[in-house]
């Protein structure tokens, strides 16, 4: 390529050659300065099969979730995280079957990580509800690294449950956070948002009650977590606490606010994390 350029260069006027080289240099500099993504992922949440028709069928959730998965496969993320409320009635075999069948349509090259919501294990999980969950899904929490970024998922329904698994998860979370102290950043996934407006908001169905809310946030802050992605709210919300962004993503299924059915696309760079909510019916 270089030899060809040198051979044909005399045929180009000096002025045009200078312009060409200037443009080439500028383009190269811009390309070199443009941030390169380390990886991308998609967060799906609250399909909640059966909710729209009050457990009589899952027809609309099937339609919406199928559209979402088609779009996920087109976007080709490095992985997918599903943050709970997979079904509306955790023991309904038809809802479980519909969720699993559509989830299986995700391209097999794309890893999928699933954590439960309150509709999957109960608002106050017991050993029985957890055993039922594990009969259908392999894990309720995870931790892995990608490009030296740590990604952790927890079972937020265990918080304030009072069963042994609650403390086990707390100790596990402290352990995996400490084991990855050299990660360039850390991201947490949970079903329940710790808060939707600010750390001091009143306890409600939509957040993690105090004092556990503060305890978890202090642990996450001390260990370098910079983003938390949650669902549960069936609406979008973004809040911050001491350098941590709390991102609540609306549902694939039924909406309870102004948002429309969709999912969140997240791109991780060396120095930043960029995310956007994509409405299913507006995808091109």
Summarize the structure.
The protein has 284 residues and is α/β, with parallel strands linked by helices.
Structure description:
With 284 residues, this protein is an alpha/beta fold. The chain folds into two domains: 2-32; 39-282, Metallo-dependent phosphatases (Purple Acid Phosphatase, chain A, domain 2), CATH 3.60.21. The protein has helices at residues 2-8, 14-33, 59-75, 93-103, 118-121, 127-134, 164-179, 212-222; strands at 37-44, 79-83, 112-115, 142-146, 149-153, 185-189, 225-230, 237-241, 244-248, 262-269, 273-279. The strands form two sheets. It has a six-stranded mixed beta sheet with strand order 4-5-6-7-9-8, covered by helices on one side. Helix 3 (59-75) packs parallel to helix 4. It is globular, with a radius of gyration of 23 Å. Residues 1-11 and 26-33 have low confidence and may be disordered.
The sequence of SSEs as H and E is HHEHEHEHHEEHEHEEEEE
Number of strands: 11
CATH superfamily of the largest domain: Metallo-dependent phosphatases
Radius of gyration computed on alpha carbons:
23 Å
For the record, give the distance between the C-alpha atoms at the N and C termini, rounded to a whole number: 37 Å
| Broad CATH class of the largest domain | Alpha Beta
- Helicity range: 25-40%
